[in-house]
Amino acid sequence: MRIDIITCLPALLESPFAHSILQRAQNKGLVEVVVHDLRAYATTKHKNVDDYAYGGTAGMVMMIEPIARCIDALKQQRSYNEVIYMSPDGQLLTQGVANELSLLQNMIILCGHYKGVDERIREHFVTREISIGDYVLSGGELAAAVLADTVIRLVPGVLSDETSALTDSFQDGLLAPPVYTRPADYQGLKVPEILLSGNKQKIEDWQYEKALERTKLRRPGILGSEE
Ligand code: ADE
């Protein structure tokens, strides 16, 4: 999988892909993440990427030229399954959406800033808009990092058996059950006996019960919502 992220603040995206699972996914050659600085595609003398909004609306708007030039340059090198614009008006990101995107070969993620991008980009270049939640961020970069993280960990081979995505919360329409590690007794706070029993079937039944109980209590709306 290849993910090209277009941003006017590339520094914001340096760290998220340079550690842990996301870094390993790239080192293993399973995923390639390339961040593009929009300013490199600016056409004005001062390398502007934004301008005043027509109609007198307050706030700046990201210009069409740099974004269009960047997307066109990328499309000349390979074809893309999706050009995703991160926006609070987009489709809400769920585990189901992440599962779907994890099957794609190449995607572009465009990060908005200021008042957003010129509408013509959304109409003619963007194929999909995704929101990470009903709140407004200062820009699309953190949202892009969240989206890329949740998609990359689902790419086959990225997670080892122990960290398999199949046991994640939401993957089976349930929240994850509680987990414990050593010591088995911390100042009288004990790990449930069953987990120390070695009985695989009983442990699995217990984990299922706990996952169900937790989901009913905390997120009844997701029960049975697996995709
Ligand atoms: N940009 C600003 N807010 C956002 C959100 N909630 N999701 C995705 N992109 C955004």
Main attributes of the structure:
single chain; 227 residues; Alpha/beta knot; Trp Operon Repressor, Chain A; 2 domains; 6 helices; 29% helix; binds adenine
Description of the structure:
- This protein has helices spanning 20-27, 64-77, 95-101, 119-124, 141-152, 200-218, and strands at 2-7, 32-37, 50-52, 60-62, 82-92, 106-111, 128-131, 185-186, 189-190.
- By secondary structure, it is an alpha/beta fold.
- It folds into 2 domains: 2-152, 3-Layer(aba) Sandwich (Alpha/beta knot); 169-223, Trp Operon Repressor, Chain A (Orthogonal Bundle).
- The strands form 3 sheets. It has a 5-stranded parallel beta sheet with strand order 2-1-6-5-7.
- The longest helix is centred in the C-terminal third of the chain and has 19 residues, at 200-218.
- The two termini are 22 Å apart.
- The protein binds adenine (ADE).
- Adenine binds at residues 86-88, 112, 131-133, 135-137, 140, 143.
- The site of adenine has 12 residues, from β5.
What is the helix tally?
6
CATH third-tier fold name of the largest domain: Alpha/beta knot
Helix/strand-derived category reads alpha/beta
Describe the biggest sheet?
A: 5 strands, parallel
What small-molecule ligands were found? adenine
| Major beta sheet, strand line-up | 2-1-6-5-7
Mean pLDDT, as a whole number? 95
Shape: elongated
Order of helices and strands: EHEEEHEHEHEHEEH
Enumerate the spans where pLDDT stays under 50 for 5 or more consecutive residues: none
How much of the polypeptide forms β-strand, as a percent range?
15-25%
> Architecture of the largest domain, CATH level 2?
3-Layer(aba) Sandwich
How many domains? The number is 2
Strand tally: 9
Q: Superfamily at the CATH H level of the largest domain?
A: SPOUT methyltransferase, trefoil knot domain
What is the name of the CATH class of the largest domain?
Alpha Beta
* Helix content range: 25-40%
